[in-house]
Amino acid sequence: MAEDRHVNVQFLGIVEYEEAFLLMKNLQNQRINDEIIDTMLILEHPEIVTIGPRARNDGITAPPSYPTYSVDRGGGLTWHGPGQIVVYPIFKWDLPDESSVAKIIALIEQWVINSLADFGINCHRDERMQGVWLDGYKICSIGLSFLRWTSRHGFTINLNTPENRVENLAGCGLESSTTTCLLRLGHDLARDRVIRSLIETMPQILYRSVV
């Protein structure tokens, strides 16, 4: 069994994307230098579409009605906005089973799958794209950036996003309407309960627990 590592969780409410981006970079440097312990930011952004290198390389852009911000995490277009939980783990990934990016992504996928299973929701992986899926629709996006095996950026869970906003975006190389939220798949979950489940299931998958 891996060691149990402590995590400092910060609940930040609604934060503009650029402010969170600068905070992540600062915390990542502090974590690399062991000035802080593993830290997890939980928040929500006003509507923004982040554009990763894959989208820029392929010349993919968001429709004009969406505000955008270029980022350095993996992937293409990712929607952020109301009704979405955003989790940024500023973790040093050096525990057993964390020896590659693929393994780390798989751990995060399983963490989200286990957390939603607490509500009787049977999510799954899909060969089309990393993330977490339900009934053929993507409800969780994952995109990390690493420096010295310390991450920034993270993942999103779409709970009850505004109608047709995430659905109308062809994100991360997928067709539009592939990504949606849990509410439109028939699951009305309270934000606080999902966050509590993430925190409670984290030790089982990531061998990390809240301070």
Task: Write up what this structure looks like.
This protein has one domain: BirA Bifunctional Protein, domain 2 (2-Layer Sandwich), CATH 3.30.930. The chain is built from four helices and eleven strands. Strand 8 (129-134) and strand 9 (137-147) form a beta hairpin. The radius of gyration is 16 Å and the shape is globular. The protein has helices at 17-32, 53-58, 101-117, 191-206; strands spanning 5-14, 38-44, 48-51, 68-70, 77-80, 84-90, 124-126, 129-134, 137-147, 150-158, 208-210. Helix 3 crosses helix 4 (191-206). It has an eight-stranded mixed sheet, with helices on both faces. The longest helix is centred in the middle third of the chain and has 17 residues, at 101-117. It has 211 residues and is an alpha/beta fold.
Question: Which key terms come to mind for this protein?
Answer:
alpha/beta, 4 helices, 26% helix
Summarize the helices and strands and which ones pair or pack.
Layout: E1 5-14, H1 17-32, E2 38-44, E3 48-51, H2 53-58, E4 68-70, E5 77-80, E6 84-90, H3 101-117, E7 124-126, E8 129-134, E9 137-147, E10 150-158, H4 191-206, E11 208-210
Parallel strand pairs: 1-2, 1-11, 3-4
Antiparallel strand pairs: 2-6, 3-5, 6-10, 7-8, 8-9, 9-10
